[in-house]
Amino acid sequence: METSEPTPKTEAGPSNPRRSVDVAFAAPEGVPWRRIPTGLAWYLRLESVAVCLAAGAGGGVLALLWGLPVWALGVWLGLWLAAGAALWFLAGSSQRSWGYAEASAELYLSYGVLVRRLVVVPYGRMQVVDVTTNLLEQALGIATVRVRTAASAADTRVVGLPLSEAVQLRDRLAARSESFSTGL
Question: 20 to 30 A Cα–Cα from 11, which one of 39, 110, 130, 136?
């Protein structure tokens, strides 16, 4: 009697949709994802707190000016506190979702919690690679590397990198972009 081993459930397909997603958003073979450090989570948290405080205070002032009952003001502020708490906890998931990989001919970027995205940018299509940092990013010691291509919709960015790592990535991408574009 012939026996066969059961097929492992790690295959992609309808029986394992999670595995299908992992395969679809995998890094190129032989190149690991580089994940973004926790500075991005703190940036997102502080940004969320600022927006929620401004919206909550603004809405509270408007509620008082319109003469709404005190309970309506309490409900409004409670909603904004709940939204702020949810955004605070989602910031960690968002930070963990970001990753990039430098393959031999392309830059891969993956991110997103509710909607995952995988962006592939060929080095030969890169026109401008720059590093930007706003005041909050400067205070946290992080920066954004922005890659612009000929296609206006393909503005790619790697967010939340430590400043020194962002400068090194910019230099590597610019060198690879130049070496690929000179061969055209």
Answer: 110
CA–CA dist 61, 59 (Å, integer): 5
Helix or strand (DSSP H, E) at 133: none
Q: Counting Cβ atoms within 10 Å, is residue 51 exposed (0-12), middle (13-18) or buried (19+)?
A: middle
pTM for the model? 0.77
- Which letter, b or e, does each residue of 156-181 get, where b requires 16 or more Cβ atoms within 10 Å of its Cβ? bebbbbebebbeebbeebbebbeebe
Q: At 40, give phi and psi (nearest 5°).
A: -65, -40
- Residues contacting 113, CB < 8 A, separation 6+: 90, 93, 94, 97
Q: Are 101 and 33 contacting, i.e. CB atoms less than 8 angstroms apart?
A: yes
The pLDDT tens digits along the chain (184 residues) read 344 444 444 454 556 666 777 788 888 888 999 999 999 999 999 999 898 888 878 877 887 788 888 787 778 788 888 888 999 999 999 999 999 999 989 999 999 988 999 999 998 888 889 999 999 999 999 999 999 887 766 668 999 999 999 999 999 999 998 887 655 5
Residue 71, token pair as written in the block: 């309970």
